[in-house]
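Re: Re: ligand-bound prediction request (bumping)

Still looking for help on this. To restate: I need the protein modeled with calcium ion bound, output as structure tokens. Inputs repeated here so nobody has to scroll up.
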Amino acid sequence: MTLAATVATALVTQPVLAQPRHEPARSVSNIEQPKRSKQPAVSSYMRGQLIVGFRPSATERDRSGLLRRTSARVIDRIPQFGATLVKIPPSLNVIRAMNAYEREPSVAWAVPNLLTHRDEVVPTDPLFTEQWGLRNVGQSHQIADPPPPTVQGLSEADIDASDAWSTTTGSVEAVVAIIDSGIEATHPDLQASLWSNVDEIAGNGLDDDGNGYVDDTYGWDFIENDAVPQDTEGHGTEVAGLIAATMNNGIDGSGVCPGCRLMILRAHNLGQELNAIAYAFENGADIINASFASADVFLAPEWLAFQAAYKAGVLSVAAAGNEAGNNDMAIPDLSNTKLADAPLFPASYDIPGILSVAASNDQDQYGYRTGCAIQLQKTNPCFFTNFGHDSVDLAAPGVDILTTSPPGSYVVADGTSFSAPMVAGVAGLVKSVHPEYSVVQLRNAVLNAVDHPADLAGGWTATMAASTPRRRLWRAPRRAFD
Ligand SMILES: [Ca+2]
Ligand SMILES: [Ca+2]
Ligand SMILES: [Ca+2]
Ligand SMILES: [Ca+2]
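Reply:
Sorry for the wait, this slipped through. Here it is.
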């Protein structure tokens, strides 16, 4: 993994927009006469501007004469399309001027300089405006460690989810397995998004699909060894909402891939985790979300499990960790009495099928606790996200994140645990449009669409490693495997 840490802004616009939005440019002579459409809405074009196509037969004298008579002047030419952008007196009604131009013998067509709109889908869910990570227009939003209760983000420091949703909001065929603390399956914003094991008959005491698990309809509880992976901690429910909370249902907010389906695998130790990984790739998951840290040391069986998932066609998205540490640095324990202190796994396994995700904030900076930084008037003691030029692939929103919480409410929280599901959701959107993608294609589609804002391009990475006490500054309040 060679990318510098980057942010997930515009994560999805490239991979999901696989087809060109516009027809290829044609030569002027082949351009058809545009059909007259209904007049555009008043607010949707530049005042005092027209784009004019003169006929090939028009002379320079025709053109300059018309411009003079209408007190217009040329402000741009686009010769590839025979288009001339002209400025007309602002007092003139643009539509009337357009019609007048079109009556001129020297003019083939004239149109207002229409404003182009980003093709967005903005959900109606009441708390969507709090979800700055999905769509940041500089709005105020709650923070995880008040006071103050709210802050204002930087417009466009987000993953542009609403732009991607104009292409897809996800397919039920795209299945994300969440290996975590389970889920509150009755949560009104989550219950519609659970994966359905269609070959299993619920509650009949039989393993109908012969996969080794009785009555497993939407996952498995590896802690209690039953078919109900209920969430007693909240962490898994929070992760689930970021991936696939239901859109436009009037409740809370929306997940990144609300159309995706969630396979819930409850696990709390390495043995359970290994079984959960096997369940995921044997039962049709496309993506594994791993918002947990298992150890600061390479674990052979865990590496084997994630490698097997990769070979089986499953992309894993892992949280980089919350210790403000450099995942590139190996710090052995010289006392020989405990495990090494870095880097963090599974995020740091060098497997092509693992994306390791740091946390960014609403300013496109590496994640620190917002309220802490405001109160101390400095950010360093409040940093939490792990980073790493080689071992971390990208950053995604992980500060002041609103998401679903048991029993049926929501919470605002910090952590790379929430950055990973943002990326898992993006991968779900890509997989929804391109089910044929291999793990590497899916991973590359995500990585090729990231922004590279200055703060995430290396600044903090360098100074942080050199100058501050690095590790254990802060530990997320809830991490599944703590
Ligand atoms: Ca079964
Ligand atoms: Ca059954
Ligand atoms: Ca259970
Ligand atoms: Ca909702």
